[in-house]
Specification:
The protein has 803 residues and is mainly alpha-helical. Helix content is 49%, strand content 4%. The protein is built from 34 helices and 9 strands.
């Protein structure tokens, strides 16, 4: 008896194999179809009972993925690719100054919510939802076509084995005419409630062969909508292959990704995941990708099942898994390390396009791997860089941007590759190239000039996002308008043509305008739009991004560089709120850095006390601090009076009796020789007081005293009794000095070229009447290891050389 049942089951499986073979684009799982332990074909009643029992059952703890490399199809030579008109959007928009945003899922299903009856009660079956209408410029009647076609699935051409777990979008079944489809729909209507699951899947598969030009007619057909209704009613009765066949038919039918039917199918597949083989899981995930629908619930089950079996899968499965991870915008944290180990093991086997797919998957899923792994991955890409497509090349750059890894040899290769490829690259690819250079602080004239030359004729194809990020990248790297006369004007004009997009994405306008502000460019109409009360209100409603700091920086830059500005401005309340927020952050981070604390302390010793050095944000909109000091016309330090609100703050030094301060230090002969060559303003005056007996320091680290001594404050007259009248007179003629402790991240990589924000700060300090003294990070970090005398000598030279 048992033997007969087994034979019947095997025969049914064979019949099903022959039926499925008609659909040439559906992958074939040979052993999965022929072995009864993998697929059990039962009566509809038995299947129904089994599904009802599965409602209460969770995946078994000891579940093993059914994976057999020998079951791969090896005779498929068809190409597998998809041509996307728009390159994938990146999640990391800005450079290091901006936070990278994580993925957010809005779809949440439960087993109960997939019930067909509850769906039918609350949903309208009159017709499918209308497809979204793309944004159209006012002067256009249809969207601008892309500049270059991007094959985001080119990696599928690398190995025939991808055919068993992906859908070849170039191999749609033979088209049938509209009358044929109407006849099929009429037959389905006649069957109505008598239809079996196999009938529903058969009708949907056949109808999906309709020519794409006639799909709008089909979507409005009531009989077709009823057929979709039947698919939901029979959802739990479908076999695994019927379920995948129906899902595949939805791809060809271009069912909108938000349509309720897909929500029901996702929920059903999620609960069946532990019954499916590895290739069935990956194939289902690929179908969701082809429909451009995020399915977090289903992917969660896929990752859960694959994680403990990751070591068993082959290279094609690994690459495809990374691709699915990226398109799903998520990777579980506990899967990242095993993935990295698995990837490093087979890195040498990867084809050029597969490397690009790996980088894109890691980038989109926001998956950080170790620095060593990133370096090895890019090293592998470098070995075949000339064989990589533009799309794969850009993907490697994206992941370098995400991981902030400065790979010198790769970037040097880009110096050669980008100018050669630039005329064939898409707008989005060019934008990502520039944005990565900006994030890595890599100012390379060959790359930047090549992109800048190519962009102006492509501006009509640029989204506002592309234009604004290009402006940000070039402004950050200090690329001046004189270097490419048409680059900035063309992008600015492109923004004017796409003002409507900023109602949905206000952050893009602020990104572009800040990039322009870095290089002192202020298109007044766009600035007026960004600072208008309506736009500010819109920007502040954005819960995903905090745009207050960007508004504050733009408003302050306009106030300093455009004194004639009569347009809208931020309210004083908002300005004070943001300034206070930035100062609190600076107190907890920048102000506590050892190099800043040492500079503050040494300046206090040099000038005579805490009251002569004020650590504060002179220009809060530049998001950094300075050490402010005031000197009179003879070089004498003047006490810095903080605003009344700051005097009681714990960060403001208390007054100290300067009569008790040490007024001199001993220095080495070498330092003395350096200092006597510096002409101090006080020494040039005939009334300059003579040297004062030095105050000798305790022995240095070597235990010896310096023989030669110099009073570093001999050129600074001793403070006398100060009256309010004297102070007022001194401040009228004082020199305001802003001492900056710079960091390597303030400059372009391996150069003294300031990045956009910090170049703007220098410019704004000079406009505000300050003389800037830079304690360069290379110099000051070395001074931290030297004696106090040498630090004071270094600071003395720096400050009095600026007078």
């Amino acid at each position: 008896m048992l033997k007969g049942n087994k034979s019947s089951s095997l025969m049914a499986a064979c019949v099903l194999c022959r039926q499925v073979a008609r659909f040439r684009s559906l992958p074939i799982w040979r052993k999965g179809l022929t072995q009864a332990k993998h697929i059990h074909i039962k009566s509809e009643d038995d299947i129904n009972d089994q599904q009802e029992n599965n409602k209460e059952n969770k995946p078994q703890e000891g579940y093993k993925l059914r994976y057999d490399p020998s079951s791969y199809s090896t005779n498929s030579a068809n190409s597998h690719h998809q041509t996307d008109n728009e390159e994938e959007q990146c999640l990391v928009a800005h450079g290091p100054s901006f936070c990278q945003q994580g993925n957010r899922y809005s779809v949440s299903c439960s087993r109960q919510s997939s019930s067909s009856k509850s769906k039918l009660r609350r949903l309208n079956f009159n017709k499918l939802p209308e497809p979204e209408i793309p944004f159209v410029l006012p002067a256009q009647k249809k969207p601008v076509p892309p500049t270059a076609k991007v094959d985001s699935r080119a990696f599928l051409k690398c190995r025939p084995k991808y055919a068993s777990m992906t859908l070849d979008l170039t191999q749609q079944p033979r088209y049938i005419d509209w009358p044929e489809v109407l006849l099929l729909l009429q037959q389905a209507s006649l069957l109505k409630g008598k239809m079996k699951p196999s009938d529903v899947s058969h009708f949907l598969v056949e109808v999906s062969k309709l020519h794409p030009d006639n799909l709008p007619l089909l979507h409005r057909n009531q009989s077709f909508v009823l057929l979709l209704q039947y698919s939901v009613e029979h959802l739990q009765l479908f076999s695994q292959l019927q379920l995948l066949e129906v899902l595949q038919s939805f791809v060809w039918l271009k069912i909108p990704p938000s349509y309720y039917v897909l929500e029901a199918f996702e929920s059903e597949l999620s609960h069946r995941a532990y019954q499916m083989s590895l290739h069935q899981l990956l194939f289902a995930a690929d179908l969701w990708r082809c429909m451009k629908r995020l399915v977090p619930q289903f992917l969660q089950q896929v990752f859960k099942l694959i994680c403990p079996n990751l070591g068993q899968i082959g290279v094609p499965e690994l690459i495809h898994l990374l691709y699915i991870m990226g398109e799903g915008r998520h990777c579980p944290k506990d899967l990242i390390h095993p993935l990295e180990q698995r990837l490093m093991r087979d890195l040498h086997q990867l084809h050029p396009e597969e490397i690009g797919t790996v980088c894109l998957g890691l980038f989109k899923s926001q998956s950080p791997i170790s620095e060593h792994a990133v370096t090895r991955l890019v090293d592998r890409a470098l070995c075949c860089v000339t064989e990589m497509s533009d799309f794969a090349l850009v993907n490697v750059m994206k992941y370098l941007r995400f991981s902030y890894r400065f790979h010198r040899k790769w970037l040097e290769a880009m110096e050669q590759e980008v100018p050669q490829r630039v005329h064939g690259m898409s707008v989005q690819g060019l934008m990502h190239m520039a944005l990565t250079c900006s994030s890595l602080h890599y100012h390379n004239s060959n790359i930047l000039n090549a992109i800048a030359e190519r962009i102006p004729p492509l501006v009509p194809h640029c989204r506002s996002k592309d234009s604004c990020k290009l402006l940000w990248a070039y402004g950050s790297l200090g690329f001046l308008p004189s270097q490419s006369p048409t680059f900035f004007p063309s992008l600015i004009e492109g923004l004017r043509q796409r003002k409507a997009e900023f109602q949905r994405y206000p952050e893009h306008l602020l990104t572009g305008l800040l990039g322009l502000a870095f290089i002192s460019q202020f298109p007044e109409d766009l600035v007026a739009l960004a600072l208008s009360p309506e736009f500010i209100s819109l920007a502040l409603k954005n819960t995903n991004l905090d745009l207050k700091k960007d508004l504050f920086s733009l408003d302050s830059a306009v106030a300093l560089e455009m004194p004639q500005w009569m347009g809208p401005k931020l309210t004083s309340e908002l300005r004070e709120e943001v300034a206070d927020m930035l100062w609190k952050f600076a107190l907890s981070s920048i102000c506590q850095k050892p190099e800043v604390l040492e500079a503050e302390s040494s300046l206090q010793d040099l000038l005579g006390g805490e009251q002569f050095v004020w650590k504060r944000m002179i220009l809060p909109h530049t998001r950094s601090i300075d050490l402010e000091i005031h000197l009179d016309s003879t070089g004498q330090p003047i006490p810095v009076n903080p605003p009344p609100l700051e005097q009681n703050s714990s960060v403001v030094p208390s007054n100290q009796d300067w009569k008790k301060l040490k007024t001199g230090v001993t220095v080495t002969d070498e330092l003395f020789e350096k200092l006597i060559n510096v002409k101090s303003p006080s020494n040039s005056s005939p009334s300059s007081p003579g040297p004062v007996s030095p105050f000798r320091l305790s022995p240095d680290e070597s235990g010896s005293l310096f023989d030669s001594v110099l009073d570093l404050t001999s050129g600074i007259p001793k403070p006398q009794t100060i009256t309010a009248e004297c102070l007022l007179q001194d401040y009228k003629h004082s020199v305001k000095v802003a001492v900056q402790v710079t960091h390597k991240n303030h400059f372009c990589s391996q150069s003294q070229h300031l990045l956009g924000l910090h170049a703007m700060k220098r410019r704004h300090l000079k406009i505000s009447g300050y003389r800037v003294v830079e304690l360069h990070h290379n110099e000051w970090l070395q001074m931290l290891r030297k004696s106090k005398a040498e630090k004071l000598g270094y600071l003395h030279c720096k400050i009095y050389n600026c007078l």
